[in-house]
Specification:
By secondary structure, this protein is an alpha/beta fold. The chain is built from seven helices and seven strands, in the order E-E-H-H-E-H-E-E-H-E-H-E-H-H. The mean pLDDT is about 90.
């Protein structure tokens, strides 16, 4: 049985290397993050629990969550490997506004025991950047510049080679 207090990470092969692809809050507090080599992480923290990714199961779960999110909007897209895009234009008022819809979604995801970050913005790119690289929240259209300015180039959904250049 797993010690639930031990830091946990998911590893997977990226190119020729085994790297961390997800970490829990305890592992994050130790300074671990996705992209760290698995050998380095284990050398730094011998108590780290590591499980191997199951991309097929992850995709199936993402599809299930997407189907479940039809309660909010009929326009949903999977943003693999671990995200969803919901176009809530014209739907948010059914929940009392964008913030109320986000709160309902967050509450349901939390109850299901899922880790999540919810961001609402005027563009897909800005919402993606806020949820994955910035601070989750509601960013009204026209405020994208202030949201994106402090973030790294990776927040713009550029490939790794372009960001490195």
């Amino acid at each position: 049985m797993r010690d639930i207090t031990a830091p946990l990470a998911v590893s997977g092969k990226r190119g020729n290397a085994d790297v961390l692809i997800a970490v829990d809050e305890a592992a994050e507090k130790l300074g671990l993050f996705p992209g760290v080599a698995l050998t380095q992480a284990r050398a730094m923290y011998s108590s780290l629990d590591v499980i191997e990714e199951d991309a097929e199961a992850d995709n199936a779960l993402l599809e299930t969550i997407a189907d479940w999110c039809l309660r909010y909007t009929p326009l949903i897209a999977c943003d693999t490997p671990n995200g969803l895009l919901l176009d809530i234009s014209g739907c948010a008022h059914l929940y009392g506004g964008e913030d109320a819809l986000a709160a309902d979604l967050a509450g349901r995801l939390e109850t299901a025991g899922l880790a999540f970050r919810v961001a609402i913005a005027g563009t897909i790119g800005a919402a993606h950047a806020a949820a994955r690289h910035g601070k989750p929240g509601n960013y009204p259209g026209g405020k994208e510049h202030a949201l994106l300015l402090p973030l790294s180039l990776a927040a713009l959904r550029l490939d790794a080679d372009t960001v490195a250049a």
